[in-house]
Amino acid sequence: MIHYGEEDSQEENCSEKLDIDESSWSTTLSDNSYIKEQICDSTVAFFDDYDIKVSCLSVNYSSRNKRFDVTLDDKGKKRSFRVVISECRFKLATDSVYDYLIEDMGYWNMDKCFCKKEDGKVSYRESESPIVVGSSSSSKKENKSSSSSSEKKQSSSSKNEEFSDSNFIKIDSLYWMKKNLDVEVEGSRCYDDDSTNCEKYGRLYTWSQAMGIDKKYDTEKKGNTIVPHQGICPEGTHLPSDAEWLSLRNYVNTHSEYKKYFMNQLGGVYDYRGMYRSEGDEALFWSSKEYEVTDSYYRDEFAWLWAFHEDGTTATDNAHKITGAYVRCVKNGENDGKEESSSSAEVSSSSVKSSSSKEVKLTDDDFVKINTLFWTKKNLDIEVEGSMCYDNDPANCEKYGRLYTWSQAMAIDKKYDGEKYGKITLPYQGICPEGTHLPSDAEWALVAGFFNGHSEEMSVFTNQLGGAFDYKGMYRSKDYEALFWSSTEYEVTESRYKFEYAWLWGFHSDKTVSSDNAHKITGAYVRCVKNTAP
To answer: How far from chain centre, in Å, is Cα 9?
Structure first.
């Protein structure tokens, strides 16, 4: 069923073989049931080759993005994939935990009777009736138009929307809307481009749409915002500031009975790549506050949003402004006329108290001897400004340790995440406790060489598989791998980004070890090595 590499010759005439009428072929892609079926079968078979048992929940064609989107059931967890089609071949792409598995998979050939190429023209076999895939939503009506044009609701200005007191709940000192906003503005969307999802979850907006400003500010800096900022919220209400979201989170974390008002519409998100994801798992909400990423060409393309998850946890992150997230409005009150800075958020990603690494005392029991070196048995968990817990959940710092950028691990100015730091004297302490140091790339290589013949002892580095925070701003790979910083930079020649990389090492659940030069803004873990043997 699955073929890799170059496309097979298509000498068979499928029209004659299956007595298919020539009018049953189209040169354009649509919500094609035959292709859906093959995508589903091929994907399930591919994962089965790796003993990963998945089933197809849906294969849907997105007319907006001109591609198919696949949702798999992976032991109760939804996994989302994009399908890239090139003539009579297709391949998968994903931002999920399986990105490592499919990144080099190549293209699959379509069945000859689902796609044909004659005289340089590519055609796809059409179907009159949809084929249901698993519990798929692929049996929905074909060629559904985008939500912004197919809504039954008449477009209306939020300024004229009537909201009674029953639409709000008082939480601490503020009155918050109980439901996600569903006011249509140009370009806003419904999850999966399905208008019924706007009724179920509310509407997804980019940051500029939520702010009610020109879309150019999705890539440009708007500057300081006077709060409260109304945005698209109804008269007498406003888009919450980052400070108001922080106040809310602090309150509901100690008064959990109020969380239900923000977990009642877990409508997911569409990410900056235009991919719908996380339905039923989370709801993301815009604040009115920008976030400037320093030392980056894309520095003005981010704003702060807040998330509520199905498991009751909350998180905050700086996201691309073109992300599609939800809006909750707050009644105007005492904070009128104050200015909200666009600088980095003051909120820490963890409740762990800050402490200097020099104050941390380690005993011999905290180390294990590997080859000739003594390594800490656990990932470092010392809070420094800007360090992170996986998924912004403090419980994950306790479980996995803390994620650091390279400059944070090195305890140097963050400008060196984009500039060359240069030669260092080894051993280099970084944020490691007194008497220990951040391992060099050569020391990590020594460990990797040892484990090539002693994989049974690798558990000391696979005991906290806390994933990573990648340079795109996404948490990933939890329970599959743990990535660790070295003190060694990597220079990419003939690139404007030549000094933005350093070496890190990965330990995986399958007992393999890898190394790579990664963006210094990646969030990875730290293990420390004793300077001298005990």
So the answer is: 39
Are 45 and 88 in the same domain?
A: yes
For residue 189, how far is the Cα from the chain centroid? Answer: 19
> CA 472, CA 523: separation in Å to the nearest integer?
11
In a domain, 153, yes or no: no
CA 173 to chain centre: 32
In the sheet with 55-62, reading across from the earlier edge strand, the strands are 55-62, 67-74, 77-86, 89-93, 108-109
Asked if 166 and 140 sit in the same domain, the reply is no
Q: Can you tell me the distance from the alpha carbon of 349 to that of 392, in angstroms, rounded to the nearest whole number?
A: 5
Q: Please tell me the distance from the alpha carbon of residue 318 to that of residue 300, in angstroms, as a whole number.
A: 11
Neighbouring-strand partners of residue 467? 482
Write down which residue in 315, 340, 365 finishes a domain. Answer: 340
Structural domain for 431, as ranges:
357-530
Say yes or no: 115 and 255 in one domain: no
| pTM of the predicted model as reported, rounded to 2 decimal places | 0.41
Q: Tell me, yes or no, whether 496 and 420 share the same domain.
A: yes
For residue 152, is it within any domain? no
Last-in-domain residue among 340, 365, 392? 340
- C-alpha distance from residue 9 to each of 86, 115, 162 (Å): 15, 12, 63
Which of 80, 295, 317 shows the shortest CA–CA distance to 207? 317
Decide if 81 contacts 43 (C-beta within 8 A): yes
pLDDT at 42: 83
Q: How far apart are CA 251 and CA 171, in angstroms?
A: 8
Residue scoring higher pLDDT (484 or 300): 484
In a shared domain, residues 42 and 137:
yes
Band (pLDDT 50/70/90 cuts) for residue 141 is very low
Note whether 127 and 187 are same-domain residues.
Answer: no
Decide: helix, strand or coil at residue 98. coil
Any domain includes 346 = no
Give the start-end residues of each E strand in 264-301. Answer: 267-270, 276-279, 282-291
User: Does residue 43 fall inside a structural domain?
Assistant: yes
* Same domain as 164, residue 132: no
Residue 101: count other Cβ atoms within 10 Å of its Cβ: 16
Among positive and negative, which fits the CA dihedral 274, 275, 278, 279?
A: positive
* Number of domains into which the chain is organized: 3
Residue 385 CA to its chain's centroid (Å): 22
Nearest to residue 503, comparing CAs of 436, 414, 440? 440
Residue type for position 528: C
Query: Residue 116 corresponds to which tokens in the numbers above?
Result: 């044909």
Contact 526, 367 (CB under 8 A): no
One domain for residues 113 and 252: no
pLDDT at 131 over 70: no
* The pLDDT of residue 157: 40
- Judged by DSSP in three states, 44 sits in helix
